[in-house]
Amino acid sequence: MPALRDLTFEQFVEFQFGHAIRAHGNPWYFDHDGDWWEPEPPTGVAYLTRLFANGPQVLEWFSDAQIAQGLTGLVNTMAVGDQPWMRDPVTPASERAAAWGAIADFFEEMLGPRCEPRLGHLATEMPPPLNTVAYMWWDHFSGFTNPDDPERDLVDDAELVCLERILNSGFVACQEAALHGLGHWVRREPCCAAVIDRYLKSGKAALPELVTYAKAARGGCVL
Question: What is the C-alpha to C-alpha distance for residues 201 and 195, in angstroms, rounded to an integer?
Answer without folding.
Answer: 10
